[in-house]
Specification:
Radius of gyration: 30 Å
CATH topology of the largest domain: Jelly Rolls
Number of strands: 13
Protein name: AraC family transcriptional regulator
Helix content: 40-55%
CATH superfamily of the largest domain: Jelly Rolls
Distance between the termini: 72 Å
Pfam family, one: HTH_18
CATH architecture of the largest domain: Sandwich
Largest sheet: 6 strands, antiparallel
Keywords: DNA-binding, Transcription, Transcription regulation
């Protein structure tokens, strides 16, 4: 769980001068510092010797993701984003997930006992592909969130971490795969490009929508009709069309009407009233307002300038 947001104190606990481990923990404060190394995933157990406050400051590094599972009740830490911090409480089985590619600073109010799981980004991407979810390129950040499945997997690691020389590589790798599969299923996050692509219309659907709109340039085709033809709800279709074109269906159709109007003004002698009707405008007044606002000149003036 998290508590209220509050301003960050200025280096409240002070930086330690003791040697730090790979996760910014002071080595002299750890009663347990155990490690298991698999083919892809690394497991650690970090447990403090006492209940004193401490601070972790860790600069960004291209190392993938870190997951922590609390083995005990009552741990409390304030995680900072710039100068603002949010306090999180960890019950036994609560987890945090964070990217090691981002700066991290946290004040620990008391001691802790965590299983840490370090997952390289290529492992996350490969696991996503094998699960048929190639768009998942990352993990959503959480802190203090209960996760019974991950807690169970973490507890299964404790005996192996206590006697790492007896742990079989196959066991470590299978457990790593189980952890990765669960993390992607619960916290998986699509990459920016994949997420953007998922919001757009499929090329065939976009082409069909444009064809229907253009074919009814002088008519009164509804967005609902086009959405139905694409097998989508009106709201979903409108959002996806905008993501694909940068325009709403109405804006796109209006641009086509104006383009058609320019062609008629330039290449025909039709009166403005007839041009307006042929291009789907309510009347000449409506046509003149829209044309003037968009093109910057009234239709008659524009025709005289182009045809001069």
């Amino acid at each position: 769980m998290h508590i209220d947001t509050s301003p960050s104190p200025a280096n409240s606990n002070g930086a330690t001068s003791c040697p730090l481990d790979a996760f910014g923990c002071a080595g002299d404060k750890l009663a347990d510092d155990q490690e298991l190394v698999g083919s892809d995933v690394r497991f650690h157990r970090k447990r403090t010797a006492g209940e004193g406050a401490s601070q972790v400051v860790m600069p960004a590094a291209p190392r993938g993701f870190l997951v922590g599972v609390s083995l005990r009740e009552g741990h409390r830490r304030r995680i900072f984003d710039g100068r603002r911090g949010r306090t999180h409480e960890f019950a036994a089985g609560s987890v945090y997930v964070r990217s090691l590619g981002e700066d991290y600073k946290a004040d620990f109010d008391n001691g802790f006992d965590f299983i840490l799981i370090e997952l390289p980004r290529p492992f996350i991407e490969r696991t996503g592909t094998e699960l048929g979810q190639a768009s998942l390129h990352g993990l959503r950040a959480v802190a203090g969130e209960p996760d019974p499945v991950l807690a169970h997997l973490a507890r299964a690691l404790v005996p192996a971490l206590q006697q790492p020389s007896h742990a079989q590589r196959l066991f470590i790798d299978q457990l790593g795969l189980a952890v990765g599969t669960h993390l992607l299923g619960r916290y998986g996050e699509a990459g920016a490009a994949a997420a953007a692509a998922a919001r757009r219309l499929a090329p065939r659907c976009l082409a069909k929508a444009k064809e229907m709109l253009a074919a009814n340039i002088a008519g009164d085709l509804s967005v609902a009709d086009v959405a139905d033809a694409c097998g989508l709800s009106r709201s979903h279709f409108t959002r996806a069309f905008h993501a694909s074109t940068g325009q709403t269906p109405h804006q796109w159709l209006m641009a086509q009407r104006l383009e058609h109007a320019c062609a008629l003004l330039r290449d025909s002698r039709l009166p403005l009233a007839q041009v307006a009707v042929a291009c789907g405008f309510a009347d000449q007044s409506h046509f003149t307002r829209v044309f003037s606002r968009t093109v910057g000149a009234a239709p008659g003036n524009w025709r005289r300038q182009v045809c001069a």
